């Protein structure tokens, strides 16, 4: 059933909050950089601009991923979101980190005269408040979805990249604001504008580290990851409870979208089961699995002798 506008907004609240914050912050940072000549402020402006574009790409990817299956893509377009998540990681590394390091290096080679940093401090304060608000929203939404799982394990097991990408981006943005603030202060306190350039390079290195982590997670999703072990165990338990199934050879899964899973099952059926009875049993098992686990969008059950099957847990 299609989501209503209200439910769609709620599902994307993290992305919308981050986009609104980053657009406003980017404009403020560029104005401050033009007034003060601060390299780290210019770098932070580029960072916020890249983040804004990233949120637009993720929203676009989510919309594309919701297209229904067709003859060319029988399992749907859900994994297109994973492609755009990988593109976001590349943009953070190439544009965000690359421009930051390059701009910082230029500022070290040819430092600009120091100007009144008051504008920088004001913008940094406003940016911190806005980024902090977006970060809190991202934390709350991610905490609500992770359950009892640890933070890092929840990120590794998450099949929806939008949530953890915004969380990573906002965390990197807050770290970058701290570095930019220290860089501006140290440059004026010690009368050396090259420190501001060094701060820009540090911001670039932070972005490169975040981009590397995001690329690794997005790559795994793009290649194809199994469902959570709890879901696989539940499927196996339900199959083993069937009296006419003598053994479950394997349960193999792959996410075709954040909320859709394809499962392939090999099971050894009772030898006394007639073909028609087996077909009826398989239909009943599929209906039972879909009722208990709605995220199972496609179920394939193959009757197979245990000794003939490649048994994989």
Automatic annotation (TrEMBL):
InterPro entries: Cation_efflux, Cation_efflux_CTD, Cation_efflux_CTD_sf, Cation_efflux_TM, Cation_efflux_TMD_sf, SLC30A9. Keywords: Membrane, Transmembrane, Transmembrane helix, Transport. GO terms for biological process: zinc ion transport. It is a multi-pass membrane protein. Its main location: membrane. Belongs to the cation diffusion facilitator (CDF) transporter (TC 2.A.4) family. This is Cation diffusion facilitator family transporter. It comes from Sphingomonas trueperi.
């Amino acid at each position: 059933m299609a989501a209503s506008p209200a439910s769609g907004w709620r599902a994307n609240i993290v992305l919308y909050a981050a986009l609104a914050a980053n657009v406003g912050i980017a404009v403020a940072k560029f104005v401050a950089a033009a007034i003060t000549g601060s390299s780290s402020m210019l770098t932070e402006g580029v960072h916020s601009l890249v983040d804004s574009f990233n949120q637009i790409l993720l929203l676009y990817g989510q919309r594309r991923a919701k297209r229904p299956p067709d003859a060319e893509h029988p399992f749907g377009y859900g994994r297109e979101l994973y492609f755009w998540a990988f593109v976001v990681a590349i943009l953070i590394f190439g544009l965000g980190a690359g421009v930051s390091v390059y701009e910082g290096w230029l500022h070290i080679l040819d430092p600009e005269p120091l100007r009144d940093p008051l504008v920088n401090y004001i913008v940094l304060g406003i940016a911190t408040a806005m980024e902090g608000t977006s970060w809190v929203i991202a934390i709350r939404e991610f905490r609500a979805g992770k359950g009892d799982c640890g933070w890092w394990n929840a990120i590794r097991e998450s099949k929806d990249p939008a949530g953890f990408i915004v969380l990573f981006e906002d965390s990197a943005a807050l770290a970058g604001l701290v570095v930019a603030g220290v860089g501006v202060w140290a440059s004026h306190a010690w009368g050396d504008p090259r420190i501001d350039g060094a701060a820009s390079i540090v911001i670039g290195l932070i972005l490169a580290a975040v981009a590397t982590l995001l690329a690794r997670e997005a790559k795994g999703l793009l290649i194809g990851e199994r469902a959570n072990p709890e879901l696989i165990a539940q499927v196996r338990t339900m199959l083993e409870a069937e009296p006419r199934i003598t053994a479950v050879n394997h349960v193999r899964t792959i996410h075709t979208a954040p909320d859709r899973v394809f499962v392939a099952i090999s099971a050894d059926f009772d030898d006394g089961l007639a073909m028609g009875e087996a077909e009826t049993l398989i239909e009943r098992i599929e209906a039972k699995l879909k009722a208990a686990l709605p995220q199972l969008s496609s179920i394939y059950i193959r009757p197979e002798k245990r000794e003939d099957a490649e048994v994989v847990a």
